[in-house]
Predict the structure.
Amino acid sequence: MKRMDIALRISGVSVTAVLVALVTVFSSGQETTKKLPRLRGRCQVCHRTEAAQWAESRHAKAWVSETFAQSTNNRTQKDCLSCHAPEKILVTGWGKDPVLRADDREHGIDCVACHEDADGAHHGTLGTQTEDHPVVKNEKFGSVEMCGTCHAKFGTVDELKASQWASDPKACVTCHMPEEKRPIAISASGPTPVRSAHAHDFRGAEPKMFQEGIDVDLKVEGNILMVTLVSKKVGHNFPTGAPFVIALVDVKVQDGGQTVLTHQTLFADDRDRGGQDTRLKPHETRTIKVNLQGKKGEATVRILHKYLRELPDDKATVLWEGKIPVG
Ligand code: HEC
Ligand code: HEC
Ligand code: HEC
Ligand code: HEC
Ligand code: HEC
């Protein structure tokens, strides 16, 4: 019995080895690379995980974004373009205004824009060695200063500096590029060793990230519906960024299929329009009180996020939704 067991296990191992070899052959061919965008520098050939994650990110959509096109007169408003399709920021310099590049603008903020220097070397914090391209070990890579090259203009870095995360020199990366243990490249001889890699999907204004950062609680007391937001793990205002990016608390009370009450509270920086900055600050707890005016039924509460204030509600991202009986 024992011998057979061993024999089976050995043959199991060799079957696995063959399978892995097949997968590698397929995935180094067109099977996998076809699904990934063809990037400047062909990074997607070897850094497939980074490329697949990045392709889902807002950085990848920074130029093709419909709301970006709408707000820039179809990408012709010159002072708006450079950060959304930049030349290498290691060349123009962190903290300096990026320069609009001539080619491949549809890839927005691509790998080369962040990683490549004037000599074609790729910067990172790991200090790996490879014959595939020169690498520069750069301890400051991923610093708040680097992200601030484009994100400081609309206040996000100042907001961070007023929060408890101010002392983390890589705070943006800590929250937005969480660590994952995995190989970072597939070279000719197969995957490289497992290392401390970082998620490249740059999740921001989407449900999972929002819910990690902000707690929402619903309560009814007499004739008042209370919606409480607690900013527990957001290193900046909610929402952050340009004044046209807004969020809403949207309440609808329904009774027997009929909407009997609606209410909205705006979270926005309206200082440019002579109004107030009503965004939720880091660590802030805020309770919005909605007078139910004696209505009965079920309240649906949603937190909506819009890249452009003018967008209709049905084009907003729903970051959170909850229901509670009222009356
Ligand atoms: C032909 C394969 C190949 C291509 C194409 C390639 N790389 Fe690499 N890269 C590697 C290998 C292999 C390593 C080392 C991996 C290891 O040792 O874990 C590496 C390492 C890196 C590192 C880690 C640096 C550090 O040590 O912190 C970065 C960043 C990087 N590459 C960025 C890029 C970017 C950006 C592109 C596209 C412009 C690119 N690479 C294209 C194979 C490639
Ligand atoms: C907005 C800037 C930015 C963009 C765009 C970007 N990266 Fe990165 N990348 C980083 C940062 C920051 C780190 C390092 C984080 C650290 O070490 O703290 C990193 C790390 C890496 C590493 C080292 C392993 C890891 O995952 O940490 C590789 C390889 C890499 N990037 C490849 C790519 C490729 C390929 C693309 C395009 C598909 C890309 N990056 C796009 C900022 C960027
Ligand atoms: C070259 C300019 C540039 C740099 C450098 C840059 N970003 Fe961005 N980032 C942008 C732009 C532009 C957008 C908005 C893209 C869009 O949606 O049109 C964005 C969007 C984001 C979002 C998504 C927000 C959302 O709406 O969900 C996150 C998160 C983010 N950046 C984090 C980072 C981090 C972390 C770094 C540093 C490692 C960084 N960025 C560096 C320009 C930049
Ligand atoms: C303590 C964690 C934390 C830190 C530090 C942090 N963020 Fe965020 N960030 C979040 C969470 C959670 C969200 C989702 C809620 C939201 O949309 O504000 C978010 C959302 C965003 C968004 C989408 C904004 C919106 O609401 O439209 C951008 C852009 C962004 N972050 C950029 C940055 C940059 C740049 C830095 C560094 C200067 C940074 N973040 C630091 C947690 C963090
Ligand atoms: C300094 C770099 C920079 C410049 C210049 C810039 N942006 Fe952006 N833009 C960003 C960053 C960073 C974000 C992501 C943070 C946020 O949500 O504001 C962003 C996000 C956006 C968004 C929301 C995401 C989307 O794709 O819908 C729109 C719309 C936008 N920008 C339009 C503009 C317009 C219009 C101008 C010119 C008035 C402009 N941008 C100039 C950096 C820049």
